Fold these 2 entries.
Entry 1:
Amino acid sequence: MAIHFNHLQPIDRLKYFIERQLVKGAGYQLFVIVACIAMVSIAGGLLIAPINFDGHAIGEDVWWAFLRLTDPGYLGDDQGAWRRVVSTLLTICGYVLFMGTLVAIMTRWLIAFMEKLEQGLTPVSVKQHLVVLGDTSRTVPIIHELLGNEDNRNYFKKLNKDKDLSIILLAETVNAIIHQQLLAELNMPLKLSKRLVLRSGKSIQLDALHRAACTQATAIILPSQFQRSDSPVTSDVETIKSLLSLNVLAESSGLHPRVVVELDDARHAKLARKSYQGGLSTVATDETISRLIAQCAVVPSLLKVYSHLITSSKGAQFYFKSAEPFVGMAINHIKQLHSAATLIGFIDPQTEHFALSVGDTAQHKLKQADVLVFVAQNFQQIEKILPSNKLDKVQSAVQKTTSKVSVKKSHKRLLLLGWNRRVPAIIAELDSYVKERFEVTIVSSLATEIREAEIAKLGPFSERTTIEHKAADYMVEADVKQLNPDNYDIVLLLYSDRLDSTEEADARVLVGSMVLNEVLANTQQQPHVLIELSDPSNESFLDQSGWDTFITPLIMSHILSQTALMPQSQVLFDSLMKAGGIQIRLRQLEHYSDKEMLKVDQLKLLAERQGELLIGMVKQDLSGDQVILNLENGTRVSQLANDQIIVIGNEAGIA
């Protein structure tokens, strides 16, 4: 059957021409409507011209038609049948063309213009601000840590010549709804929320980076995103591409702002440093979380201490201060001058080394580049300095001691439920504790061959660590019962990164925790349980469990924000979390004395004789363990109340 096509008729060509004009935008649409109004006005003037016997020019008739077209109020003024017919037709056309189409086009144009402004496509005109590249699970905690904490804002002002802290968030999609949702999650006062500006774009796009004024920023935070472990393109690939784009923009402007970047894999740190020629701080998620999990597995209740020190909203935290006003003075002298805060040591920025202020280090003469490290409740405490005439009186109480207490080796059984790409790093970190022996049982539905191959990539472990693989699902109660979790000292429940989203990953962990709780409910021996989640919004589900809960995005957000605000904090966290170096420990009072109760000032001296610094205590009450940092000298520590002493000391003997 033959198909015949007719040639385009003139009316079709006209319709095509009008269509092409209308799709060009509001300006062309207005032009078409104005042309239609002009033609209808001319036509109306020509229709009324033959009955005008008063000698009006054609222009007057066209104007008459235009008035009827634009204003229906003239309809009742006309006399004569033909004049009224034409006037009625013009009024109807006016409703369609002028009051309908013209107003609709202008309204749509105004709405489109406002939506375009809401998308954040206009470059910002600010300087000395912080930029967060990407809207991820880390975004809200980072902004809340920096903008929602008064001490952090004051610290930023001190470092930036009284410049108020402003944050530019570069998100892939920006509109009014997303902006309001973000402000609702932050729950900050209006005055502070105005300092948060959203810009649209990706961190790999040069124009988007320019839009956020990255080269004018004090620091740039580049957090990582959730990515499946079996994905061919990891989040580190996009991160390094973003660093390359930042470097191109920085080279073109001659300004290289400091960048704090989160990497999933620590092995990509060298490549990241090659990608950006400016100041770069790399924080590796696998290395940081594996070290923290290993430490908290060795020392129960340590996570509560870290949550206070890392999270500024929970009380005392680490603060940093330039040693320039105290050049040539000994650390011991500076410690006594700052009676309101606890001076734990100093950082040498050139060597990136943290030294604890005990023993020989306490006599170190400060240099101009040194940075003092404090534990304090707020920024004002490290600014408060005693008068110099009281120094000699207090100094006499300081003693130099180098005694060391031997640590007995212990054997622990660890049940590891679940699998993600950090498991090999966790086991490697546990193996680096030479005073500990670990018998690790890994339970997962992932094939044993794949698990063994991933663990083998980190090399052979010492004889202190043995690994056994089992295939089971921790969401099935029967499988968990067969594992006998009460026979283990530590149970570690990890989320899976082989699922599509953090919601699915955490849903499995939450169900698994309920199954584990059911199995352990009637057992006499309770293991130390640690749980890792991937979504900060699920933190409240395990608040009442009494188990240690690692919210990986929250931990990484706090470290990233603190590193952006205080670059020295990365050196400190690396030193404290690494096995075999300076670490935080929990002690009983009997470790230092056979007395049942001691004051903090007495306990400080006993701890320093063993090469440790006392920074706080964990006090047990009806509501649970209460962490108190930066204790006053008159505070009493009781053995009968089972108070635990928080100290920082050197752990000798890394493998």
Note: The radius of gyration is 35 Å.
Entry 2:
Amino acid sequence: MAAGNILLVTFDQWRADCIQAVGHPCVRTPTVDALAADGVLFRNHFTQAAPCGPARASLLTGLYMHNHRSLRNGTPLDARHANLALEARKAGYAPKLFGYTDTSADPRDHDPNDPVLATYEGVLPGFDAELLLTESLEPWAAWLKARGHDVPARPTDLYLPDRSGAQPGDGPTRAPMHMVAEDEITFFLADRVRDWLAVNGGKPWFLHLSFIRPHPPYIAPAPYDRLVDPADVPPALRAADRTAQAAQHPWLAAHIARQWAGKLPVADAVPMAAMDEAALAQLRATYYGLVSLADAALGRVIADLKASGAYDDTLIVLTADHGEHLGDHWLLGKDGYHDQAFHIPLLVRDPRRSADAGRGRVVEAFTEAVDVMPTVLGWLGRPVPPACDGADLAPFLAGGTPDRWRDAVHWGYDFRDVRGGHFEKTLGLSPEECGLLVRRDAQGKYVHFAGLPPLFFDLAADPGELNDLSRDPARQGQMFDYARRLLSWRMAHEDKTLSHYHLGAGGAASNRAV
């Protein structure tokens, strides 16, 4: 029996500190801030994996990466796993997708010639794709063409910058798009959701609105291209130079070398070497403008919900797949182990009166992406699949605190290269050795590599993760304790689909409720 509406909103590559309500000095996010005032903001929320595919697999299955095993963009997601969309269908919903889930299909369920095996941008089973936006950009490009835009043969060239008004000293990400904000892909997607709601909003619905922004390419339409002055952005958090940063760890050295030999995430393929201090400040300012663009697009959807009265019956969950380094640690993107890539927003607005005591609350307890699925299912009054690794956030939403809760967060990152073997060759590792696990609590952070030395950071003294203490004799006992706790967490979160059952006299018994 449907309980109300569900709006699950994900942004791509939005890091947790880029919200005005948490004190960011440049970003303006009035929509998110208003939702935070009417809901609960989880301040220490972390994703379980990166990049997009593995992160979204954890979000939508409620499983840690070592259980769902969709390790990279393109690694298949085992069809046996329960997921949020399939479970919602059992509650009478037909979940609709606007955007993408980056789900790589299980090849065992498809003929080798099936085109679904030629992309990692598949749709999670259980979702009806009302508007699928992949890297081909076809729906957006067709809409632009109908509006009179010249659409290039390669739709990704829509992101090429308009450098006609370039000024001396402009950085590679300074130039705006060739189109106004109204025509940019973010407003396009939001407005298609609004069109759907105008016709279908009268009955309980489940919408997953998956925005690409503030993901690269780093180019913004006017007026968002000039929303933030590069002179006002906070400086990057990093070592004095790339060589000093790379000395922190062999994997980091290999990754920095590879990234800086490549191109900036802009459509006209500018070399990374062009990113000096001024260019980085501009890139960060452009990113903040894209955050505000995404916030404004969501604001239109929220305004329509309020105008129709649906807002009062809608559970809103707002989060991201992963974060973004923005030049911190001499990196761009979301690869590795640093907080900037894994610390993400989570905001939940529960419309029920039982949640009134929690409105405007900021929760400091550690939460994880795997908690979203059990929270939504709990709101629907549905049982949580036995294998799920997350926990229902309902007690926080009601203004309380669960009797038992985690004191740390964990995530994984897999850097194998199935097709090219780059890190395997560079670092002398087998594919199974190309992975890391992190235990991070309020005081410290331990990073365990399968085939490389570990890392250990004292976050109280070194919140920027610049000083690795793993080789400090005085820290060996403390580091061992973190390693022990990481192993205990890993053992306690093995696949438990059937482990709670016992077959014997009287049939199948389960201690699942214990």
Note: The CA atoms of residues 179 and 221 lie 6 Å apart.
